[in-house]
Specification:
Strand order of the largest sheet: 1-5-6-7-8
CATH topology: Neuraminidase
Helix content: under 10%
Order of helices and strands: EEEEEEEEEEE
CATH architecture: 6 Propeller
Largest sheet: 5 strands, antiparallel
Oligomer: single chain
Number of strands: 11
Strand content: over 45%
Radius of gyration: 13 Å
CATH superfamily: Tricorn protease N-terminal domain
CATH class: Mainly Beta
Distance between the termini: 17 Å
């Protein structure tokens, strides 16, 4: 199915309240209107977003989700090796590829 998500290292948007900036090779995510930092940690590989959340692979081999409406950062996958840049999504689900090549559901 066609992905509705986009991947980028630098995004400024008018219709959404967030942007991504790189600083010394790290992804940082801020809120556009007041530029407050919401995720301040290395995002090693892969970063996708939809209208509700931002998903990324953290340096600790976990997949994290930042909920734009609640401001809550949660770990949705942990404890296994994740193939870099393997995050993708459709209207309902987020998928990733594990080290053994298997595609798995992240949420």
């Amino acid at each position: 199915s066609e992905s509705i998500f986009t991947t980028s290292s630098l995004v400024f948007t008018d219709d959404r309240d967030f942007f991504f900036v790189t600083d010394s090779g790290l992804y940082k995510v801020g809120v556009n209107k007041n530029a407050s930092l919401i995720i301040d940690e290395p995002v090693t590989e892969g970063l996708i977003y939809d209208a509700h959340s931002i998903y990324f692979i953290s340096e600790k081999d976990s997949i994290k989700r930042y909920d734009l409406s609640t401001g809550i950062l949660s770990e949705i996958v942990s404890g296994e090796k994740i193939v870099p840049r393997s995050l993708w999504g459709d209207y309902d689900y987020i998928y990733y590829t594990s080290e053994d090549g298997e595609q798995k559901l992240a949420k």
